[in-house]
Amino acid sequence: MSNIRVKICGLSEPAHVQAAAEAGAAYVGFVFFAKSPRNVTPEQARDLALAAPPGVAKVALVVNAMDAELDAILGAAPIDILQLHGAEPPERVTELRARFGLPVMKAVGVADAGDLAALETYAQVADQLLVDAKPPKDADLPGGNGLSFDWRLVAGRRWAVPWMLAGGLTPQNVAEAVRLTGAQQVDVSSGVETSPGVKDVGLIRAFIKAVA
User: Fold this and answer.
1) How far apart are CA 208 and CA 40, in angstroms?
2) Residues 157-169: pLDDT tens digits?
3) What does pTM read for this prediction?
4) Which residues are catalytic?
5) How far is Cα 27 from Cα 187, in angstroms, rounded to an integer?
6) Crossing angle, helix 174-181 and helix 201-210, to 10 degrees?
7) Given CA atoms 42, 70, 166, 8 in this order, what sign does their dihedral have?
8) pLDDT-based confidence at 156, cuts 50/70/90?
9) Comparing 22-36, 116-130, 136-150, which segment has the lowest mean pLDDT?
10) Regarding beta strands 5-8 and 57-62, do their DSSP bridges make them parallel or antiparallel, or are they unpaired?
11) What are the chain's domains?
């Protein structure tokens, strides 16, 4: 499974960015969402992004962000990819790609087969898809809730763009998730934390090693 690309999301300490990169992460993600325990400011994100070595993609996770917020983030931090984790319609994906000239990854929540159509739609406009567990109706956070979905729903599926599996992944279950889905990329946030927003270097290493 050594060709599996790993994204460690919700990082908030430069040392953890370095540790993720050294362990083999292909992507590091920073959350810009006030309700999240992983929320960082554009200024903090600059220090985090600069801690990532060349070749590691720096991802900004935003939720229904307005242009001004994105201007502030991208003006402060060297970001490589925008990850849209809200209810952004396909038109907004197209608009942001054109405005900022960056690849856009669109997160799509999956709970049952009825949610798969949205993946087809966004595959026509985004550069990548993040196939995540759909949050509960009363959830404060659109992701990072530690929930998984029935991976068999996406087993063997392919879309017009690369995709990444997310939602409830841990060092203990990620190898099985990859085996069941055929995912070539995986994303983790809460699964490598000791408490919400607190990353653990040992868990980061264990997660990446599990798919190495």
Assistant:
1) 24
2) 899 999 999 999 9
3) 0.94
4) 9, 132
5) 9
6) 30
7) negative
8) confident
9) 136-150
10) unpaired
11) 5-210 (3.20.20.70)
